[in-house]
Amino acid sequence: MEGWQRAFVLHGRPYSETSLLLDFFTENDGRVRILAKGARSRRSALKGVLQPFTPLLIRWSGRGEVKTLRNAEPVSLGLPLTGLMLYSGLYANELLSRVMAYGTDYSSLFFDYLQCLQSLAAATGSPEPTLRRFELSLLHHLGYGVDFLHCAATGLPVDDDMTYRFREEKGFIASVVIDHYSFTGRELQALAAGHFPDMETLRAAKRFTRMALKPYLGGKPLKSRELFGQFMVNKIPPKPLPDNGTPG
Prior knowledge:
By secondary structure, the chain is of the alpha+beta class. It is 35% helix and 21% strand. It has 6 helices and 8 strands. The protein has helices spanning 83-99, 107-122, 128-141, 185-193, 199-217, 223-234; strands at 5-15, 19-26, 30-36, 56-61, 66-74, 163-167, 171-174, 182-184. A 5-stranded mixed β-barrel has the order 1-2-3-5-4. The chain has a 3-stranded antiparallel β-sheet with strand order 7-6-8. β1 and β2 (19-26) form a beta hairpin. α1 runs antiparallel to α2, α2 (107-122) runs antiparallel to α3 (128-141) and α4 packs across α5. It is elongated.
């Protein structure tokens, strides 16, 4: 890889005594696994640079599954995520790590991810609307297609006050059944717009994205979701990200 690419660290772990094995989200090549040789040594210029949520320019080489990092430079300071917003950022990173194939171009998703981090960094309230929009964007880029605005059985536009039941691989169908898979037309319109004006539409969005993402995530639970829940119950402040770039 000759040129520079914009990138973020999604996840990293120590490798040998002084190196790091990192998963990057790059602008043009999507998810790339890269070995940063000597990045943990005391004299390394990369020490403290290869952190999640820090916008980077990177170059690498190699043709195998694991590339070798040649250069990495921060574009700016890391986005200031703390407390609940830090957990939310780790959740977004874990989602990407779980669903993105290596070496696939997700250039449009890259900018949606950047917007998600910027929104979290600037947020003064709940991160939930930002996370729901990011999840919907991720589903779109994964090729998950669903029409929120029309009944799948009749083709008619959804009505605010009617109830529609979600059927996988078919869509939303008008139904009198009220259960976990049921959504009002108003909730579906909020999902289509990515705008959640109240708790009712926000809860509906979370319910839908959980259902839609489940096939991609499989049965293995998300670590960040568990930590997120613990934080909400106990308000335990998150540990600072270690200097070796490993988020958890």
